[in-house]
Each structure stands twice: as C-alpha cells, then as structure tokens.
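Good morning,

Attaching, inline, the backbone tokens for the sequence recovery test we're adding to the shared suite. The designed sequence is right after.
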C-alpha cells in the first residue's frame, strides 16, 4: 500500500509539472497569437493601402468631389498635386459648356475638294450642275517633318584693283555645334523631346526613322553633350540665383545610373529639386545626404549654420518640404532656418488610414479630412487678407486680424482632436500611425501661421519632379554620370524658362542661335545676361513666349 501511494504521488507530481509547463506554453502561445494578430492587422492595412494605390481610381482622371465622401476628393484641398487647380478650372467635356478652342493663330492651308473631272453631272440626263457655293470646315492637322535645309552662301569676286580680299562669302546661319549636321532648331527639338517630353533615346531614333531620317544613337548622344556644354553657363547663373532665394520648395527622387564612373554596376543616385520665386534648380547627386541641401542652401558643414550674406549680414531661410529627416535635422541644427512641412502629406496619412480599415475608420477619416479642409479654407483667406494688407491699409488690417482668428480656430480644432484621440484607448493602428505623424511634425506644420504668403503644401516641388519621373519610367535612367548631370542641366534651364512663361522650344533655339553667332562657344557677360528670365527685356520675353515660326 505504501509503495502504491508513493507511486501515485510521483505520478501526481509529474502531472503537476506537466500542467505547469503546459500553462507556461499556453501563455506563450497566447502572446504569440496576440503579436500575430497585430502583425496581421498591420499587414492587412498596408495591403489595403497598396491595393488602393495600384488599383484605385487615378487622381488624374477623377474630378474632385464637393463633399467629404470617401476621402478621395475633399474639394481639392490638400489633395494630390493639381487637385485645387482642377477644382477651380472650368469644366470640359460632356456638359462642360466650354466651347471650342481658338486655333486662329496657327498657319492655315486651304485644300479644294472636287469631284473627278472637275464637276458633277446629272446621272439621268447628264446635264452639268452649276457651281454656286463651297462648304468649308476646319481641321487641326499634325505633321512632323524632318527635312534637309541646303544653305547656299553667295560668293563674290573683286573686280577692282583695291587692296583687300579677292573673294568674299556671305555669312551663313549661326551654328551652335560647328561641325555638326543638325540645325539649332533640330538640337532644341531634340532636347525638348528627350528631356521635357521624357522620351527615351530609342524612341527618338525610331521616331526619326519613321520620318525617313536614320540617325545613330552615338550621334544624338554627342549632340546632347555639346548642347549641354553650351547650356552650362546658363545653368550656373540659375543655380546661383536659386541659392540666394530665401524660400525654396525642396524635394528629391531616385535616379538610376547604369555604368557609374566609380562603380562596376548600376547605382542609385538622387535627383533634388529646389524651386524659388523665379528659378527651378535640379541637382543630380550620388547621395541623399544632408550635404546636398547644405551645399545648395548655403549651410556651413563644419558649424551647421547659414553662411552670411555677401554684405556680412545674417541670413534667414524658410524651406517647404516633406518630413524627410535631412530637412528636419537641418532645421534643428541651423539657426535662422525654418521648416514648413507639407499638409498634403499629413492628409495622405489620414486617407490611407481610412483605406486600411474603411469599416471602422471611415467616419473618423472623414472628420479629419473636414478639419484639414477647413484649415485650407482659413489659409486661403489668410493669404488673400495678407496680400490686401500689403497693398492697402484701413479695413485691410481688420480683415487680416479676422483671418488670423479663423486660422487659429481651425488649427485649434485639429490640435484638440489629436490630443484627445491620442489619449483614448482602442484606436486602430493605422489611425495611431497618422496621429503619431501629425504629433511628430506639429511644429513644422503650425509654422505656416507666420508665412501666409507660402502655400500649405509642397505640391510645387512634387509637380516639378513629375517630368523626370516620366523620363525615368521611359528611359529607366542614365547610362553614365555625365548623362545624368546633363539631364539635370537641361531640366534646370527648361523648367526655369517655363516658370517665366516662355516657350522652351523658341527659347532654346534663340539661345543656340546666339551661341552660334558667338562662334559655337558658350555665352558670357551681357550676351548671357540677356537670356536670364529675370533680367531679359520685355520684348525678348514676349518673343520667346511665342511658338517657333513655321516655314
């Protein structure tokens, strides 16, 4: 009996140990299930956002909705780049009542159509019909013509006995690339198609071949490189003026270089853009580090402070950007530098939170988008009131005070909601992420109050990067370092010209003509000064804003 009791006690002890181990294992499995459920919720939310980005409606084709809806419209305030412009632009298409565009400025060619034989006869009696009127209508025709222009320079021989040259030859056309076979107009069109329109090299070669012109790739590469050398002084002046700007919009995107000089394989470079009041400057660099921002903004890398003005006075700099750490770090370290963060980026976080969990966060997202929309309305009124106050006094000051009060009210509503919701339990993870971003970047978002003349978002720089991004999708990048920097040079010149309202094709042709008259060398001094949009004469600006002449 004693042995049986001992055996049962040993068995009971083993069972107690096994039960304790199973309880520990069950607790570990419960914790693992909780972690996996949280991870599944996070992955599901990211999947919903990515599906919306890939398969959702395109912002380019969806008209902004007048109400809060599903977070895709919001009246165009703070949305994707171009939404506010599309909301304010007149409607076109069915029901738009926009009428037809006016093409009377285009060259006109009349074509007469008639029956075979020059008339019409009655099919029964064969008597000839009498002509009495024409039925005329217009069509817009599009033709691309590659032609060979033969320049005949007249030569004259002396018939007198005076001293001097025996023969003279009339001057020919100005050739920007002296030994090249392409006209200045061809080179301008090549740069516009390659970089402004974003076509790849192979696409250009195939397009020229369809017009009967077989051109090799190396010939186009050499022509672009020669044109880049001519544009270099123009780019340098644009960069210098951009660095003197007190407020740039800044952004960056990746760029691929397939055979970099310092490596044996494809490299990931970065294309930066800095947009001032009258300049758009693109910088191609192998890194995304803060040294690029410091070099362009005039920040001493040793001290981290802004370099003084040429007269020795202190500088102040206001940078509109997204939340990339380079801009935030510069704002924390550099005295006199103020960060203005993009409210459109913040709005995007709330939209994606609603996309991640539409069942539970639809109303929450709609409320937040309404608050941001109200802030945009208040900022629009603040901007108008500030502009009016700089032009007039009296009632303008009262209007400005009221606008500041409306702005403070809209911002206070956002601040109250974010603090209350961050303290409340049970909020979904996507909503927590959006609120955490809003809290982390709050100082840079609220700093817009002191700069009512600056927009609330950084859409300006994002729009500027669209053209390089399209080129990257079509051409995948650049083959060499020099080709990558050439792309930045051409984008800097053409984007600055477009910012001044110029026709880039006319502008580039005029500049290349001037280089041709300069012996195929880059312009300097007053000749270069003439082509800077901020110093050019009104007559030149008007001429360069027109389409290139035909014929």
């Amino acid at each position: 009996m004693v042995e049986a009791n001992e055996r049962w006690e040993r068995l009971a002890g083993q069972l107690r140990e096994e039960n304790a181990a199973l309880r520990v294992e069950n607790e570990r499995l419960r914790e693992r299930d909780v972690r996996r459920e949280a991870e599944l919720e996070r992955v599901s939310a990211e999947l919903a956002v990515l599906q919306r980005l890939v398969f959702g409606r395109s912002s380019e084709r969806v008209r902004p909705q007048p109400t809060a809806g599903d977070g895709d419209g919001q009246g165009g305030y703070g949305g994707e780049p171009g939404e506010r412009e599309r909301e304010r632009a007149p409607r076109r298409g069915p029901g738009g009542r926009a009428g037809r565009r006016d093409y009377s400025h285009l060259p006109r060619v009349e074509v007469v159509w008639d029956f075979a034989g020059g008339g019409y006869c009655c099919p029964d009696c064969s008597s000839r019909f009498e002509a009495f009127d024409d039925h005329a209508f217009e069509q817009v025709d599009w033709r691309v013509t590659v032609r060979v222009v033969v320049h005949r320079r007249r030569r004259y021989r002396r018939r007198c006995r005076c001293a001097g040259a025996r023969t003279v030859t009339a001057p020919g056309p100005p050739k920007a690339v002296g030994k090249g076979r392409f006209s200045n107009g061809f080179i301008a069109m090549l740069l516009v198609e390659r970089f402004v329109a974003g076509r790849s090299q192979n696409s250009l070669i195939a397009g020229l071949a369809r017009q009967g012109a077989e051109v090799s790739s190396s010939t186009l590469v050499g022509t672009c490189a020669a044109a880049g050398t001519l544009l270099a002084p123009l780019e340098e002046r644009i960069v210098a003026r951009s660095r003197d700007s007190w407020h740039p919009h800044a952004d960056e995107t990746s760029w691929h270089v397939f055979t970099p000089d310092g490596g044996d394989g494809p490299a990931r470079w970065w294309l930066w853009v800095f947009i001032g009041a009258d300049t758009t400057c693109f910088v191609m660099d192998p890194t995304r580090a803060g040294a690029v921002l410091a070099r362009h903004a005039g920040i001493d890398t040793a001290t981290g402070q802004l370099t003084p003005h040429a007269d020795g006075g202190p500088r102040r700099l206001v940078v509109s950007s997204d939340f990339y750490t380079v801009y935030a770090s510069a704002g924390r370290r550099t005295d006199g530098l103020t960060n203005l963060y993009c409210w459109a980026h913040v709005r995007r976080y709330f939209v994606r939170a609603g996309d991640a969990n539409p069942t539970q966060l639809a109303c929450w997202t709609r409320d937040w988008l309404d608050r941001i929309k109200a802030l945009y309305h208040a900022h629009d009124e603040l901007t108008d009131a500030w502009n009016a106050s700089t032009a007039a006094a009296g009632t303008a000051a009262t209007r400005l005070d009221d606008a500041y009060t409306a702005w403070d009210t809209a911002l206070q509503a956002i601040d109250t909601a974010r603090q209350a919701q961050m303290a409340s339990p049970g909020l979904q993870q996507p909503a927590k992420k959006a609120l955490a971003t809003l809290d982390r970047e709050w100082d840079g978002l609220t700093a817009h109050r002191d700069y009512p003349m600056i927009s609330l978002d950084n859409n300006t720089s994002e729009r500027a990067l669209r053209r390089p991004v399209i080129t990257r999708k079509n051409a995948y990048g650049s083959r060499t370092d020099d080709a990558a920097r050439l792309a930045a040079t051409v984008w800097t010149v053409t984007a600055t010209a477009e910012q001044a309202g110029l026709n880039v094709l006319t502008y580039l042709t005029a500049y290349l003509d001037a280089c041709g008259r300069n012996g195929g060398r880059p312009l300097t001094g007053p000749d270069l000064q003439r082509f800077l949009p901020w110093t050019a004469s009104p007559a030149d600006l008007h001429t360069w804003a027109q389409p290139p002449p035909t014929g």
